[in-house]
Amino acid sequence: MSLQIKIEKTKFPKPKPNQDNLGFGQYFTDHMFIMNYTEGKGWHDPRIVPYGPIPFEPSTMVFHYGQAVFEGLKAYKTTDGRVLLFRPRKNMERINISNDRLCIPPVDPDFCVEALKTLVNIDKDWIPEAEGTSLYIRPFIIATDPYLGVRNSKTYMFMIILSPSGAYYPGGINPVKIYVEPRYVRAVRGGTGYAKTPGNYAASLKAQDEAHNEGYVQVLWLDGVEKKYVEEVGSMNVFFKINGEVITPALEGSILPGITRASTIDLLNHWGVKVTERRLSIQELYEASENGTLEEAFGTGTAAVISPIGELSWEGKKMIINNGKIGELSQKIYDTITGIQNGRLKDEFGWTLEVK
Ligand SMILES: *Cc1c(COP(=O)(O)O)cnc(C)c1O
């Protein structure tokens, strides 16, 4: 795909938000990237235009049947003023895996990384600089045919929008309390669990609501068939350190293959820490908790990087992990990944890509 990106800069740059109060996903930069797909023509008209509303007919297919995929990654400003992306090609490879599951035509990952770099470079003044802050990047694709029949759309839009975001842990890393969901399921093998698609999130809201009402921050999903095996948490993969060994659920089609998950496994292997991808039952986890061998538990994902789990509640039984404090290994993984992301540590793995 050798396409030229047309650039139309805004005539009305917006004031930047207060950097101390960014939160997540509330502010958007001055520009966005758009490209269209038309059957028979392929992806065309890549362009960067001022950020703003786009008109769609009410019959637009994505509103009705949810044929859509998305990605999430971040750009970081280093202390010496460089701008780094973390493994962006992985996101563009993964969007094609999601595309395949949702019958959306594939994109050229290299071209999309180029588009991403060009957009971030144009809006680089929006990247916040305080410790822990970043520019969240949201690429997504939606079905755009104005049509109510159930079939694949023949037209699509690929867009990238950017959102300056605050530190995930403004007051220092805080382990979270998590509710093991006994009733609802997120995904089943053979379903769309491994794809990053909005429907998976729509299906998760009810359990999330009920967990919130019980005082829990997130839901730990069990497998959709037997409700026995641990799957993942909200928008994070999960890891457990039991008796010195790190265990994470294997990718069997119902779990999202996280890039932070892959990076964590690479780091553990590099450090010589035993890490195993396999099925892990909630009963096994409970027994490990009871006999004192459950040493650490944490989630991994772009937003938090590492989110330590201090408590799990399963059918009224509580598992308190590491006295509700972050574990040593969790902290080391967090420090290493964030250090590579913000340029303070040497990037031995070639994970970062500089935007310039
Ligand atoms: C995006 C996502 C993750 C984490 O993936 P990363 O690439 O590490 O950000 C985990 N689970 C779900 C359901 C997700 O959507």
From TrEMBL:
Main EC class the enzyme belongs to: transferase
Residue list for modification N6-(pyridoxal phosphate)lysine: K196
Record-linked InterPro entries: Aminotrans_IV (IPR001544), Aminotrans_IV_CS (IPR018300), Aminotransferase-like (IPR036038), B_amino_transII (IPR005786), BCAT-like_C (IPR043132), BCAT-like_N (IPR043131), BCAT_family (IPR033939)
Pathway: Amino-acid biosynthesis; L-leucine biosynthesis; L-leucine from 3-methyl-2-oxobutanoate: step 4/4; Amino-acid biosynthesis; L-valine biosynthesis; L-valine from pyruvate: step 4/4; Amino-acid biosynthesis; L-isoleucine biosynthesis; L-isoleucine from 2-oxobutanoate: step 4/4
EC number: 2.6.1.42
Keyword Transferase: yes
Pfam families (alphabetical): Aminotran_4 (PF01063)
Example GO BP: L-leucine biosynthetic process
Known catalytic reactions: L-valine + 2-oxoglutarate = 3-methyl-2-oxobutanoate + L-glutamate; L-isoleucine + 2-oxoglutarate = (S)-3-methyl-2-oxopentanoate + L-glutamate; L-leucine + 2-oxoglutarate = 4-methyl-2-oxopentanoate + L-glutamate
Listed cofactors: pyridoxal 5'-phosphate
Keywords linked to the UniProt accession: Amino-acid biosynthesis, Aminotransferase, Branched-chain amino acid biosynthesis, Pyridoxal phosphate, Transferase
Any one GO molecular-function label of the UniProt entry: L-leucine-2-oxoglutarate transaminase activity
Domain of life assignment: Bacteria
PANTHER family xref list: BRANCHED-CHAIN-AMINO-ACID AMINOTRANSFERASE, SUBGROUP IIII AMINOTRANSFERASE
Family: Belongs to the class-IV pyridoxal-phosphate-dependent aminotransferase family.
Protein name (record): Branched-chain-amino-acid aminotransferase
Origin species: Clostridium thermosuccinogenes
